[in-house]
Write a structure and sequence with these properties.
The chain is globular, with a radius of gyration of 20 Å. The chain has helices spanning about 35-45, 55-60, 70-85, 110-115, 150-160, 185-205, 265-290, and strands spanning about 10-15, 15-20, 25, 30-35, 55, 95, 100-105, 110, 125, 130, 170-175, 180, 210, 225-235, 240-245, 255-260. It is an alpha+beta fold and about 290 residues long. The strands form four sheets. Strands 11, 12, 13, 14, 15 and 16 form a six-stranded mixed sheet that branches. Mean pLDDT is about 80; it is low at about 115-165. Strand 2 and strand 3 (about 25) form a beta hairpin.
Length: about 290
């Protein structure tokens, strides 16, 4: 039996409006951009609500034989849950089925006949996606664009060729390429450069085993592995970087911090920011990895 094609028309999940054509999820806090392959995962799940898809099925449908797809799926589910206001422990949209895979809870998908009645205030649904209508109050918009930019991913691929390996007792740390918001060339270049700088600073600490984008396949898995990712945004001479430490295997958020400062475009400012972030990450990571 042939599976239905992934949903491509706009659809609603609880209080979120999903527009696959725009790789966008609109909710009460604003619009969230979604990487195309992460959106593809949601499209597959939403096409058959209630059906349990194994990890192997989702990987085959979205990534095929691409290297590192298993880790990419884990991260995709984590990002979708954040964008949809969902949690692993108390799922309202995407449920993890132990030792099997994932399913989209049927009650989360709002039928098309009810979609217009349950749209966020100030939006109407059209074939092209959400269209704003006039409102008396301004939108409180919070945009987090999920997934690696092409430029930053390229930097990560280059760094992966030479992982910053340490001894067996070092803390495994996977640095994900810094993500630019919005994905414009200037922002992407800054994100790629910050990724390189941040990895360089972290790699100087011999307590860390640093790789970029994915774990070192030659490093035996012992205990918890950590990942670090950051979203970067510049506007009117101001720079904001939101950084998180997560458990790489469970996607549990462990630590987060927002960095806000003036940005003059100079390399010295970029270097100083990388040093500041790394100096906060290292003690946080060593404390987490310390035996209880």
């Amino acid at each position: 039996m042939t599976s239905p094609a992934p949903l491509s028309a706009p659809f609603r999940l609880r209080d979120r409006l999903v527009t696959p054509a725009r790789n966008s999820i609109q909710g009460p806090e604003g619009e969230t951009g979604i990487e195309p392959k992460i959106m593809a995962v949601l499209g597959v799940l939403a096409a058959e609500p209630g059906r349990v898809f194994t990890r192997a099925e989702l990987i085959d449908k979205v990534w095929g034989a691409e290297f590192g797809a298993d880790e990419s799926l884990t991260r995709a589910i984590s990002h979708l849950r954040k964008a949809l206001g969902d949690t692993r422990n108390e799922p309202a949209v995407i449920e993890t089925i132990a030792k099997r895979g994932y399913r989209l809870l049927p009650d989360a998908l709002i039928p098309e006949s009810q979609a217009h009645d349950s749209q966020p205030p100030g939006l109407r649904l059209s074939a092209a996606g959400p269209v704003e209508t006039p409102r008396t109050q301004p939108i409180n918009r919070r945009i987090w664009l999920i997934g690696a930019t092409v430029a930053a991913a390229g930097a990560g691929a280059l760094l992966w060729l030479r992982p910053f390996a340490r001894g067996a007792g070092a803390i495994p740390l996977i640095v994900l390429p810094v993500n630019a918001i919005p994905q414009e060339p200037s922002q992407q270049s800054l994100a790629a450069a910050l990724t390189v700088d941040l990895v360089g600073v972290l790699a100087r600490d011999k307590r860390l085993h640093v790789t970029v984008g994915r774990p070192d396949p030659d490093l035996p898995k012992r205990g918890r592995r950590y990942s670090v990712y950051a979203d970067l945004q510049t506007a009117a001479g101001e720079l904001k970087v939101h950084v998180e430490i997560m458990d790489f295997d469970s996607d549990q958020a462990l630590w987060s911090r927002l960095y806000e400062r003036s940005y003059d475009g100079k390399l010295s400012s970029q270097d100083a920011l990388a040093e500041t972030i790394a100096n906060d990450l290292i003690p946080a990571l060593t404390a987490m990895a310390r035996p209880k």
